[in-house]
Amino acid sequence: MSSPWPPPQTSTSGLSTPTVARKDVILPLTSSIHISAPASAVFAAILDTSTYPRWNSFVPKVTIHTQPPSSEPADGSSSSSKILQKDTLFTYYVVMDASKPNKESLTKLRVTDISTPDDRSEYVPREVLDDPNSGYEADLGKVYRVAWKGEGGYQDRGLRTERFHEVIVRGEGECEVRTWELMAGVIARTVKWLYGGVLRERFGEWCVELKGFCEGEGRGEGGGKETEGEEGK
């Protein structure tokens, strides 16, 4: 029987990231949902920021600033790709109040990790993955994972944030999405006091809207039939 998710946040249990240790977490934000669509297609929707205006009322706009050198065109011109890759630097235009879509807060971020069943990352240490109280899916053969952390802005004043998405294969054409963001540092206390409740709601809405897109308008985009790989070593 699988453990409940998210795990309780205690000194020996709970979520963490390579940027925010479990003991330092001040504001944990989490949400999860089951989606009747292939995990690869759901993961593609998360990475493809050009789809966000079609489903994401929390972050309906994204600006890509730089892509990793491996994705740059051979002629030296800047890449126009809207797909998040490892080391992509980008800005989220965050809408905290869905009734006020023109009131945006800008957040600069950088992709820290991408892992797929066919290209498995070692960003999260194996001992963390194997900890049953960590909240991570340990089997890298059945999870698509992306993470990004804050860069610049309040991060230069001590705020530490990192967000993860895991899209876990739960059967043919079925998956579970788990997303969490952890905040640490003095400024995280202010964010928790002012915006903690709203952010929790918006995280839930993110998952619901992603589900609606992948099961409806976006069905069949960016993914295909996947086969579960062997258990990660």
Q: What does this protein structure show overall?
A:
The structure is a single chain. The protein has 233 residues and is of the alpha+beta class. 20% of the residues lie in helices and 27% in strands. The protein has four helices and seven strands. It has helices at residues 39-47, 52-55, 126-129, 186-215; strands spanning 27-35, 61-66, 89-94, 105-115, 143-150, 160-171, 174-184. It has a seven-stranded antiparallel sheet with strand order 1-7-6-5-4-3-2. The protein is globular, with a radius of gyration of 17 Å.
Q: In one word, what is the shape?
A: globular
The radius of gyration over CA amounts to 17 Å
The SSE order reads EHHEEEHEEEH
- Helical fraction: 10-25%
Query: pLDDT under 50 segments (min length 5)?
Result: none
The share of residues in extended strands comes to: 25-35%
* Distance linking N and C termini: 21 Å
Mean pLDDT: 91
Strand order of the largest sheet: 1-7-6-5-4-3-2
